[in-house]
């Protein structure tokens, strides 16, 4: 409430306070503006006739800086025309002095109501906009799902035939009269590669067919070095048109973990794809592997554009993407974090704008929860050795793994 007559201000202030509207007071237009710049307010009650900056000038400045602010003008009896002028300039209303306190309180409430309604409408608009964006992303995801499911389905039939044929070849190869055959070893090796390949494709089609279904929890002895190399192979296509050097620093560890290799590879592909996208023309991607305290750490660094600080806590949210809509859905990191947490691991990020980004994935070398699932005898023995190696003295885990 801005008025140069101190007695009037104090008297009105006390009476407004009693009606549940405690005002903040200013003795001049200049003071009023300074106060508004410091503390956001909802409604301003402004005297028109003041020495120095007059009420209409103050109104103009308020509307310039805070267009949504509601302003009620107080005019003298003889200067009602100022009130009309004020309304033209965007004032909510004007009241002529001497004022009737309940009338003023009523006007303030109306002005405040109008403001609140505007805010609600704005919030609703923003919410709707966000929902629409999410819907588009969902639509895209749904069509991606449909497409990959269709392709996976098509692949399934020839794949089944290949599996059957490979199975038959295996049977023939294992027959007694083949024992002496000199070409057996070579053929067996080739067949093993085929079987492995088929198994891999089968996993992929299963993943795609169960696109939205959470993946199963199969764990296996995983050569993470090999897995990283495969993942790099898979993203080389994305690198076309850019000068990207890939640096591997993986000599410090054996790089073996008991984990879900397919899920981990999905994470690697997501991180590597992001790294490739972050490099505009030329740069380096470094993948390093290290092992400490029962954990394998994989770091994917790039010399790309970096992530601004204000985005760092948003990048793991679903549908957060700064890429054009045909390039990113904003699900890569969200899904990756979900996977890493399911593998009992952690994912972290460090970034500097203009210098680059490093994502770190830490997974346990041996997942305790999976000990029961990896059931054949050899794997059980290997698990037990691993548990001992990493200093596991957990009797329960050992018992359940052994059982
Ligand atoms: N290595 C990186 N360098 C710079 N920005 C990155 C990097 N990785 C992620 N980001 C930022 O985080 C955002 C979210 O990444 P995320 O992988 O979740 O989605 P996306 O890559 O946009 O889309 P997609 O679903 O295809 O992966 C990206 O849009 C980008 O702004
Ligand atoms: Mg991505």
Automatic annotation (TrEMBL):
GO function term, MF aspect, one: phosphorelay sensor kinase activity
* A Pfam family: HATPase_c
> Reaction(s) catalyzed by this protein?
ATP + protein L-histidine = ADP + protein N-phospho-L-histidine
InterPro entries, per the entry: CheY-like_superfamily, HATPase_C_sf, HATPase_dom, His_kinase_dom, HisK_dim/P_dom, HisK_dim/P_sf, Sig_transdc_His_kin-like_C, Sig_transdc_resp-reg_receiver
CDD domains annotated for this entry? HisKA (cd00082)
SMART domains in UniProt: HATPase_c, REC
Q: PTM 4-aspartylphosphate: list the residues.
A: 47
Kindly give the Gene3D superfamilies that the UniProt entry links to this protein: 1.10.287.130, 3.40.50.2300, Histidine kinase-like ATPase, C-terminal domain
Q: Is Transferase found in the keyword set?
A: yes
Q: What is its EC number?
A: 2.7.13.3
Alphabetically ordered keywords of this record: Kinase, Phosphoprotein, Transferase
In this protein, which residues make up the domain named Histidine kinase?
Answer: 150-367
Q: Which residues form the Response regulatory domain?
A: 1-112
List the SUPFAM superfamilies hit by this protein, alphabetically: ATPase domain of HSP90 chaperone/DNA topoisomerase II/histidine kinase, CheY-like, Homodimeric domain of signal transducing histidine kinase
Annotated PANTHER family: HYBRID SIGNAL TRANSDUCTION HISTIDINE KINASE C, TWO-COMPONENT HISTIDINE KINASE
UniProt protein name: histidine kinase
Protein's organism: Desulfosudis oleivorans (strain DSM 6200 / JCM 39069 / Hxd3)
């Amino acid at each position: 409430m801005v008025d140069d007559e101190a007695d009037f201000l104090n008297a009105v202030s006390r009476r407004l306070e009693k009606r549940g509207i405690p005002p903040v007071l200013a003795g001049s237009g200049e003071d009023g503006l300074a106060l508004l710049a410091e503390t956001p307010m909802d409604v301003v009650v402004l005297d028109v006739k003041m020495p120095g900056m007059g009420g209409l000038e103050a109104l103009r400045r308020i509307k310039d800086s805070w267009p949504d602010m509601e302003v009620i003008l107080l005019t003298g009896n003889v200067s009602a025309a100022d009130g009309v002028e004020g309304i033209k300039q965007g004032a909510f209303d004007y009241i002529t002095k001497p004022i009737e306190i309940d009338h003023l309180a009523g006007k303030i409430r109306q002005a405040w109501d109008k403001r609140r309604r505007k805010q609600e409408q704005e919030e609703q608009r923003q919410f709707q906009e966000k929902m629409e964006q999410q819907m588009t992303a969902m639509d895209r995801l749904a069509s991606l799902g449909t497409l990959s499911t269709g392709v996976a389905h098509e692949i399934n039939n020839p794949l089944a035939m290949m599996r059957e044929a490979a199975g038959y070849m295996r049977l023939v190869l294992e027959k007694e009269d083949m024992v002496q055959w000199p070409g057996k070893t070579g053929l067996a090796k080739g067949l093993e590669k085929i079987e492995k390949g088929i198994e891999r494709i089968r996993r992929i089609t299963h993943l795609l067919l169960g696109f939205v279904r959470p993946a199963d929890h199969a764990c296996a002895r995983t050569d993470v070095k090999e897995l990283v190399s495969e993942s790099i192979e898979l993203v080389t296509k994305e690198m076309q048109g850019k000068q990207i050097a890939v640096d591997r620093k993986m000599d410090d560890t054996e790089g073996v973990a008991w984990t879900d290799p397919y899920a981990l590879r999905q994470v690697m592909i997501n991180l590597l794809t992001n790294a490739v996208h972050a490099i505009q023309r030329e740069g380096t991607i470094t993948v390093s592997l290290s092992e400490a305290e029962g954990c394998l750490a994989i770091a994917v660094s790039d010399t790309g554009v970096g992530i601004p600080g204000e985005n760092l806590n948003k990048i793991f949210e679903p549908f957060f993407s700064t890429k054009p809509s045909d390039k990113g859905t904003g699900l890569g990191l969200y899904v990756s974090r979900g996977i890493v947490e399911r593998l009992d691991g952690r994912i972290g990020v460090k970034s500097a704008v203009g210098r680059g980004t490093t994502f770190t994935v830490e997974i346990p070398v041996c997942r305790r929860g999976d000990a029961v699932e990896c059931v054949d005898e050899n794997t059980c023995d290997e698990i037990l050795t691993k548990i001992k190696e990493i200093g596991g003295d957990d009797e329960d885990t050992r018992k359940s793994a052994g059982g």
